[in-house]
Amino acid sequence: GCTLSPLPPINIAIRFTYVLQDWQQYSWPQQPPDFDTIFGGEVGGVEFGKLPFGACEEPISELHLATTWPHLTEGIVVDNDVYSDLDPLQAPHWSVRVRAVENPQCLLGDFLMEFFKLCCTKESTEDILGRGLTDEEGKDTGDISSALSKLTEPAAAAPISKLSVSNMVHNARKHIRRHRHIDESPLNTDVLNSILLVSFHPSGVIVPCSATLENLYIQLKSAPSDSLTYRLALCMSLVNFYHGGLRAVAHLWQEFVLELRYRWENNYLIYGLPAGPPDLRCCLLFQKLQMLNCCIERKRARDEAQKMKDGGKESTRASTASTSTREVSPGKSWDSWSDSDDEFFECLSDQGEMDGSHTEGEKNGSKTKPDGRLHPSNNMTLLNSTEPLYIPITQEPAPMTEDLLEEQSEVLAKLGTSAEGAHLRARMQSACLLSDMESFKAANPGCVLEDFVRWYSPRDYVEEEVVDEKGNVVVTGELSARMKIPGNMWVEAWETTRAIPARRQRRLFDDTKEAEKVLHYLAVQKPADFTLHLLPCLLHAAILKLKEEESFEDIPSVKKVIQQTLSQASKLLHHPNHDYKTLEEFINQLMTIETVITQARSLKAKFGIGEGDNWNETEELKTFVSTLLEEPEVTVLGAGQGPAGSIIHRLFVNSQRVSSSAQCVRQGCQTCGLGMSAFPSPAGREFLLRTCVPQPAPYSKALPQRLFCVLMKEEFRLAGAFSSDTSFF
């Protein structure tokens, strides 16, 4: 007989997968509503100056634990539906993966997306609120610019009081209130007043911003985080999300513009805006508000100067009246003497007639009383006298926003390249030059063009050292070649200008006209327009919020993505014409970042990071959670006996306890929890059988054979991989 060779040993690898889905033992991811705040009573409602953040639902849906026994021998373990020798806690190898909720509802992302939808609307404010002015009332109010022209006409058909801007606004407000019932107001009055109060009086509002992010608004072309524009963007988003959507936003904008007009008419500065001309690095709305603030500052300064001037005149008149009453005509009081020439000097169109007696002398450089001097210019003296050269007090150039600069560039470009067009273009750009020439002549009587050029454009005055007849070295100078070109504009301007100090010149910057232009521009904005102006500020706030939240979690991958997002936002928001599709994709990226941060926060809460006293274990858990967010499956160091494994075990125990308690309540059982298993039944069993067998003949080379089996609740799979020796077969 023949002897049968013993069967080769079979190596078995077993992997059980357990699924954890119950997170009921953990707190809700959002704080409960605070009914005492402006936006109280809403999920995620926060105090003013902050954006909400986080998920409204659990961002992690499942945790999958795979326990593996990689090397088992057949016959030493028993595993069936009734009994199993395989204890998950004793498995030598654990690995974990998590399944996130697809598109979880996150507050910051919802805020951004709902606000972005406003930018795509087509309706006007009047269409939304239903408060369009009738044709007759429209004729009464008219266009602001035409009303201003009527105010300046020498003979008006109607009394000035009825044509004043304040009267027009008063009529408009009465019309609005007449058509707005209290119960129909889109925005609650208390909320509206609170928003306007906090926006225009930001005392106590603190917007945290690290030193490295102070200039982020320049990169994003938004506005500083402590500015009115930035706060308005936050208000608009909160009102849109919590208090009525589009109608409430349109209502808030309308009230905002009315508040701006009230401040302009009453000389109240707008707080939260830096002093100076519009910052072209910021968004257009911020520039417009800066322009309005400049107008208010100029108007206040002019009014204060006029008050001081009037006060000085009154005291002078009183003194003159007591000492020289004989010079006053009998029966004629001092109040009847008009000082309109001094009071309205900035708006006079007949200034030449008023100063006609001095014109010839000023043009010829004859001596007149100097006026409007600031201080001497170092050691320089006038060329035709020994008098020191004085720097004059000049008017500040007219501030301009980027849209006005674009309009001006278009107008100048349309003049063409002809000689006439070039000359006209130069004349249009010379308003500031003419004003400075007049101021210089007033401050330096007897001066010549060369004196002005030495101060105003030193490079156009060429000096050289020469030896005179006596052998002495003297310095002489002359105008540059371009100044000597026939028809040079500087020469023509110098010959026509007169000596007028800055305080008596026509204003280069008409604050009244510019303020009304700004207010008109804001008043006619559609919701899609002003929300698009505010969108960079809201995205700025969202990025700051994401960086703030990420700093708490310290996720390297998220930190890298945020830096890439900043670079993308800089290119996107600086483009004059925004691409709505690209903007939406960018907002989706921010929503993804928020989702990852909320997932990290959820996992850290479940693994108790920051609660233990062991620093090494805490760092190991941080690394484990961070890897879990970036890798599809992560090995658990120490399996069930390590720090992460112990927490995972506790998670399953708590879930089993909750499930068992619920089942006992349903069944009315009094022995709840007795005999409870730490782990639920495996959601899947995987078996891998490996051996080496000579095939197809006993004397063939032994080759590996594999059989793989998967057992799940509603699935069974069996796969084999068999090999045979083909050398002689």
Automatic annotation (TrEMBL):
It is found in: Cytoplasm; Endoplasmic reticulum; Golgi apparatus, cis-Golgi network. Residues 367-522 form the Rab3GAP catalytic subunit conserved domain. It holds the Pfam family Rab3-GTPase_cat. GO terms for cellular component: endoplasmic reticulum; Golgi apparatus. Its main location: cytoplasm. Keywords: Cytoplasm, Endoplasmic reticulum, Golgi apparatus, GTPase activation. Residues 305-381 are annotated as: Disordered. It comes from the Eukaryota. Residues 534-729 form the Rab3GAP catalytic subunit C-terminal domain. Transmembrane segments: none annotated. Coiled coil: none annotated. Residues 305-316, 355-374 have a biased composition (Basic and acidic residues). Residues 317-326 have a biased composition (Low complexity). The keyword DNA damage does not apply. One of its GO terms (molecular function) is GTPase activator activity. Belongs to the Rab3-GAP catalytic subunit family. PANTHER family: RAB3 GTPASE-ACTIVATING PROTEIN CATALYTIC SUBUNIT. This is Rab3 GTPase-activating protein catalytic subunit. It comes from Sphaeramia orbicularis (orbiculate cardinalfish).
